[in-house]
Amino acid sequence: MDLFSAIEEPEREELKRLRKELEEANYKYYVLNMPTLSDREFDEKMHRLQELEAQFPDMFDPKSPTQHVGSDLGKKGFEQIKHKYPMLSLANSYSREEIEDWVRKLPSNVEIVCELKYDGLSISLWYEHGVLVRALTRGDGVQGDDVIANIKTIPSIPWRIERDNIPEFFELRGEVLLPWERFEALNKEREEQEEPLFANPRNAASGTLKLQDPREVARRGLDAYLYYMLGDNLPGKTHFERLETAKQWGFHISDAIKVCKNVDEVMAYIAYWDTERKNLPVATDGIVLKVNDLTQQEELGYTAKTPRWAIAYKFPAEKQLTLLKEITYQVGRTGVVTPVANLEPVQLSGTIVQRATLHNEDFIRSLDIRPGDKVWVEKGGEIIPKITGKEQSDEVQSTKDFSFPDICPECGAKLVRVEGESAWRCPNEAGCPPQIKGKIEHFVSRKAMNIDGLGEETIDLFYQNGLLRNIADIYDLKLEDIAAQERLGAKSAQNMLAGIEASKQVPWSRVLFALGIRMVGETTAKKIARVYNTIDSLQNATAEQLCAIEDVGPQIAENIVAYFNDMRNLEILARLRQAGLQFEGEAAEGPKSDKLAGMSIVISGTFSYHSRDEYKAMIEANGGKNVGSVSKKTSFILAGENMGPEKRKKAEALGIKLMNEADFLQLISG
Ligand code: IVH
Fold it and tell me: What predicted TM-score, i.e. pTM, was given to this entire model?
């Protein structure tokens, strides 16, 4: 190796590493909706990679993240369609000087349209003869997913435009957003259900748009702003005129768009919206500048990834230094102990922040923060404030030591840390107040038993007064007990009892979810209930048998077995059964499947997981037919132990497949 390449080597390595890192970050951001880098870190790394690629042109690679936009493709269930015009991204900068420079370098007489940069995900709407025919996500920029059914749930997007002179075809691009208010409500709901929270409205919007259930999408309340019209022979010579036209046709176009004539007007626009954007109902992360005249746009042209006629100015994430006064500990429904930073209150992005999660012990140790430290609090695109580091100066050295508590702050039980997990947990499930109350809250929640009138505060009150100590106590509540509580009148007591009564009709799969067995979420409960359609059959199942169900891994299986091995749970279950809850479902509970449609299936032999009758019901619930004797029309034989020799012989002669129980269960749950 010569001297030069030895010097260059580390930079070439850095280049390769950055490519890999950015590729991964793109995947986590666009496909998984779980960003690992902040926007700023991402942009900085991207700029550095661009610099290095310019330095080493021999390392050019068309697959580099600098040469293509991040891809959100990879979810099943949507038709992938090639874009008529590639969906590019925008060059961006955090520096107002760079923006000034960019404007100054444009030909002198240009008009610049300034717009807000909405922080959602881009969508491309195709209209043919005024009718919405496709709605494509950006995808990889070349092709996107058609999410039209979900887009049609957005009230501000017209399905059809009834006007004269509507062009034969046009495309409108814009941003799909989940307004702050909806985002916060959704996260609150997810917190109650112990589902993972969305980090910011962008992730929530993106996750929502990729759902396979338009009704759920509609319930969440997406909105959209449109900012770019494309097509051949469209009216208007400028970008602004086209947006005005779109507005007249009934599209949702922002009122904040301004045509600026010089750099001062542009900078004034940026300065104004830097603060004013905090009052908007949706998230924005910058300003977009676009050359107004379409001919001038064409002259300026494009790079591989971005138009040269536009640039985005990105607002810096807001950051504040403040005192970490104290770390307190919160115990959740499942006993996980979460450390919380109690801060000297600071103003950040329009709200006062005084608490922030510290996640777990490892997080605290990795930032090396202790009470008494000055810490950085950030609120970028994220609603939940984050602690990102501490001030390293000598003056503000922390005074206190940090050690994670070893006993539960709520009940005094000794905490345990499960190997391989970063969380500390209180094992005192049946005696730790927040766990008890949390279990009851989960039990009554909307997607579980849906008992109206028994909210968090009432549960707390009843717990304090000794009326509620576990979920079975709910069914022993008497009108006079409830009405005797302060704040609750006879009317609310009656409503509550009606809700409790109604919950006795809630189907088995939701009852199973409501029991709150660790890691058995709503969907898993449904899948389990399809296979085990009585609580008794579930109770008798071994971990190994449970693992045959789709989505059930060894950990969940163990949790289920452990749940039924605990005497206290069995007592509660006995009382719930006595109260009349649904501990049995029809085999076909939930949406029926057509996995076995058109199949004739023979059952033969003895089985260990389910009875013959249960298997018969399962076959029918999945669209198949159970027949008695083997013929050439038989699709397969569900074969148990000691299958009759005649049947076996006949099957062999006709070449009919035998399937064992485990494979069958896998087939219908998969
Ligand atoms: S124009 C060819 N205008 O920002 C230019 N984009 O980082 C097309 N965005 O993919 C984009 N607000 O999702 C434009 N007023 C606005 C925007 C905007 C948000 C998004 C868009 C784009 C991304 C680029």
Answer: 0.56
